[in-house]
Each structure stands twice: as structure tokens, then as C-alpha cells.
Amino acid sequence: MSMLKGIGASAGVAVAELVWLEKPDLSVTRREGLDPAAEKARYDSAAAQALSELDALYERACETDEATAQVFDIHRMMLDDPDFCEGVAEALEQGVNAEWAIWQTAEGLADMFRAMEGDDYMQARAADVQDVSQRLIRILKGIRDGDTRFDRPVIVAAADLLPSQTVRLDKEKVVGFVTKYGSATSHSAILARTLGIPCIVGMGEDFDQLGEGGTAAIDGTTGQVVLNPNEEELAEFQARQRAYRADQSALEGYKEREAVTSTGHKVLVVANIGGLDDIDAVTAHGGDGVGLFRSEFIYLNSADFPTEEEQFLIYKEVLERLAPRPVVVRTLDLGSDKQAPYFGIEGEENPAMGYRAIRICLKEPHIFRTQMRALLRASVYGNLNVMFPMITQLGQARKIKELLAEIQQELEAEGIPFSRAVQYGIMIETPAAAVMSDVLAREVDFFSIGTNDLTQYTMAADRMNARISDLFDPADPAVLRLMKLTAQNAHAAGIWVGICGESAANTALTNFYMDIGIDELSVSPASIPAVKRAVIESNPESPGVGG
Ligand code: PEP
Ligand code: MG
């Protein structure tokens, strides 16, 4: 098998069995001479479970996507379809296993639907009946819907991996993943870097060649994938794995060092995290704290709006476990590729520019209030800072301050203690915010530059779209100029400025960051030692880039 290629989105090398996340093994073999009553009971129980799964999917889809809801409704009806039910019952009478009875009946009906040429509606029913039969067979085989637990190390393959799926991956057993779509700054790739496992995204047509399955060898730096490697290829990947591990251990010595440049500028090298599971990785890699806690993952992991108490307990634990290190929690940045069905955000033409993040919080202040109350209550347990995402206007910063003052008064009136030392900052991740950073700097305590979105909006290049990944370049002079402007305006106003987008870890840019006086770099925990080394070895006198 030849070398396949994608975008290397998280460094490291892995060799393991390839499993498809959304393609469990649903092959069926015919067994005979079974007790029809027992098989009928198995079928009935699988049908009941399928119905309740479809009910839940239908309800959830109703809130966001009518068309998808309709599909689930058709699937529910199919479970009751007389032709389908009779076909299964007849097969069961012959003493075959329930899986076979379902498969045979569904294939027969699908063939019949497909033969109805010119009738698009009936042709589409072929796919529906197969879908329903697969659901039933999956249940009979004991495979849970979206099951992501494994009993052995695996590399997960998926056409696309939503952040909500990635957060549920079995962190013990998944040693890497590969996807057909997506790019290095899609949130799934970011999560892979946080987990410190190699991942390759945007494989495009090469992904389809993985269909035969087997063992995969992947290199998350080069983006290379070899399916069923021969001895020579296996040796090559194992050598790369050893080299990667050797490089990692050479970095060990940097973990506990302070990141100070040759000119004496001290930079905090902190971590981007998505939840409590990532905290050990922060301390294990010598992080000076957390520069970005993507709090929306609390919402993505929840079936409904997380309550004030639920959130409070999480923030408290993060702060306590990391104290006295500073922790920057970013308020809810939901929307775009990060969707929770219970928010009921309807399909949008341009979700990245749509109803998301602070826009939701300012339109629905009760959501903001719940989160801020939880954060302020937790603030007495450690060193908390809070920042707000997707700011585009001065008015938003002012509105946030008004709401904050109200919430603080509310807590005071209730006699609930909170820290007055909390710093409040905003993310600079839109060109509007960067251009207005002189004005915005007067309103806040710090800036954190989100290079992922700043690049996406500046270059007009969707961060999720692998086909234009060449245009999505955080090192483009246009992006660098906005960063430099932001840093200048921050320092002129006497506030600090960090970078928390993925390019904070790009050590080819560390010199530039030091030239413009960046005070904090927030990166995936595994990147911390390499970034500390790059700061220590940087040469800030070098001419600035992109000015
Ligand atoms: C960014 O946009 O750079 C950022 C850090 O936020 P997110 O990647 O979560 O959008
Ligand atoms: Mg962003």
C-alpha cells in the first residue's frame, strides 16, 4: 500500500489498529435451527430500543433541523412498516437469527425501492430501510450508538469528527486519529493536540483508500499514513516514533524553567485546556498556568444547560488544583462548529460569522449571568481571570462591564464572597477588534490574541476547509500586522497581551512574538516545553516581521 497523505495536525507517531468511529462492523452471518420465539424476543427488544433512540434523535433534531427530524420520523415509521415487519416475522419462523432476518428483509425491500426508476422518493427509501436495519443489527450486536470505548489501542478514522465526538473519545485507548475533512485549526485537531496524540486531518480522497482496514501507521508531523505497513515501512515508522520520543525527552529539562528572553523579558507559557481531564497535563508539562479554558466544552459535554452549581464546582476544582498559577477562563464560545442541540441555534448560512459566543451571551443574558455567577463564586479558590470571545465592538465591552457590575452587586447583596482581584480581558480574534484595540485597551485588563479566528476572518479563509488551507496562514503579513498593532496598543495602555490561538506554539514565529513584546503564550500542554525553549533561545533583536 502506498503512502497516503493528509494534513499533519498534531505531532507524534502511532501504529495501531484502525477503527471507524461511525462504521462499526455490521456484517451479518446466517445461522439456522434457532428457536423462533427466542429470536423474536431479541428482535422485539432491539426494535423497542431502536424506537427510543429514534425518538430522542427526532426530538433533538426538531429543535435545530427540521429536515433531519423528518428523516428520523421516517425511520420510526419504518420500524412499523407492515412489509418490513411481515418480512422479518416470516424469516424468523424459519429459525434463522434475528440479524439475518432483518438484513435479508431490508435488502429485499431496498432492491424493490431501487427498482422504482423515476420515483426519487421511493428510491430514497432504499437508504432509509438499510439505515434502520443497521440500527437494529448494531443494537443486536451490543454496539452502543456512537460507542467510543475500546479494549485495545486504536487509531480512529472518521470522515469528520465533531468536537462533541472528540471530547467523548476514550482517552486511554485512542492513540491517534485520521479524518477525511477538517483542517489543523478545526477544534477536533486542537483537542488532539491537547491530548498529545498524533492526528491527520483533511485526507480528502486518500481517506477512501483506508476502506479495507487493518493496521495503520501515522505520522502527525508529516501527515503521512500507511495502511498495513510492510516490515520496512513498519521499521521506518518505529524509528520515527523513537526519534519523536527522544526529542520529547530532550525537552524535559525545559519544563520547569522560566521562559525569559536574552533581554530579560519574562513570558508566561501557559496551557489551553478544555476541562478537568487536561489539568494533570498542564502541571506535567511545566505550564505556568492556563491561558485559555474553553468553557464551552462544559456545555458540549452536557445534555442541557449546565447549572450554576455544576459550573461552579468545575471552575473551583480547576482553580484549586492549579493555584497559585493564573487561570484564564473564556466565557462560552458556542456556535459555528461547536453546537449543543439544546441551544436551538437554527442552521445558518455562515455560522462562523453568525450567532455565537458573546453574541449569544449578550442577547440571552441569563446564560451569561449563570456562567459569571459560577465563575465569581469560584474566584475565591484560586487565581482567576476571565476573558470574553468574539468581540467586535466597543459597545460589547461596555455592555459586558455593565452586566458584570450588576452580577457583582447581586452577589454582594446575597452575601456571597468573590475576588476583587479577577482581571477581565477580551480576545482579539476579529480584524475589527485588532483595528480598534487602542480604544478597547482602555476598557479591559488584558488582551489575548486568538490567531485561529483572527486568521480566518482576516484572510477570508474558513479554518475548517482543507481545500484552502494554503490561504489560512497565521504567519501571513496581514495577520502579523494586526498582531503587532494589538500588542502596541495594549502596551501603550499599560495592559498585558497574550496569544492563545494555535500559532502561539509555532516556534518559527517566536522571535516575532518576542519582538512585539508578547507577555504570554498559551498552547496545548504538550507544546509547553518546546515553546519555553524557543523563548529562551529567541533573539528578540532580530528585525520584526510583517511591520
Ligand atoms: C482562536 O480563535 O484563536 C481561539 C483561541 O479560539 P477558538 O480556537 O476556540 O475559536
Ligand atoms: Mg476563536
Secondary-structure topology with pairs:
Blueprint (H helix, E strand, L loop, with lengths): L3 E2 L1 E4 L2 E8 L15 H29 L1 H15 L1 H12 L4 H17 L5 H21 L13 E5 L4 H4 L7 E6 L7 H9 L3 E3 L3 H4 L5 E6 L4 E4 L3 H20 L8 E2 L5 E8 L5 H6 L5 E5 L1 H5 L7 H15 L3 E5 L26 H7 L1 H14 L4 E6 L5 H20 L9 E6 L2 H5 L1 H4 L5 E4 L1 H8 L18 H16 L3 E4 L10 H6 L4 E4 L4 H9 L11
Parallel strand pairs: 3-4, 4-5, 5-6, 10-11, 10-17, 11-12, 12-13, 13-14, 14-15, 15-16, 16-17
Antiparallel strand pairs: 1-8, 2-6, 3-7, 7-8, 9-10
Structural features, described:
This protein is an alpha/beta fold. The chain has helices at 36-64, 66-80, 82-93, 98-114, 120-140, 163-166, 187-195, 205-208, 231-250, 279-284, 296-300, 308-322, 357-363, 365-378, 394-413, 431-435, 437-440, 451-458, 477-492, 510-515, 528-536; strands at residues 4-5, 7-10, 13-20, 154-158, 174-179, 199-201, 214-219, 224-227, 259-260, 266-273, 290-294, 326-330, 383-388, 423-428, 446-449, 496-499, 520-523. β5, α7 (187-195) and β6 (199-201) form a beta-alpha-beta unit. α4 runs antiparallel to α5 (120-140) and α14 (365-378) crosses α15. Magnesium ion (MG) is lined by residues 389, 429, 450, 452-453.
List of distinct ligands in this structure:
phosphoenolpyruvate, magnesium ion
Structural class: alpha/beta
| Beta-strand proportion | 5-15%
Largest β sheet strand count, sense and barrel closure: 8 strands, mixed
Quick overview of this protein structure:
By secondary structure, the chain is of the alpha/beta class. Helix content is 45%, strand content 15%.
Which short descriptors sum up this protein?
binds phosphoenolpyruvate; 547 residues; 8-stranded mixed beta sheet; single chain; alpha/beta; binds magnesium ion; 15% strand; 21 helices; 8-stranded parallel beta barrel
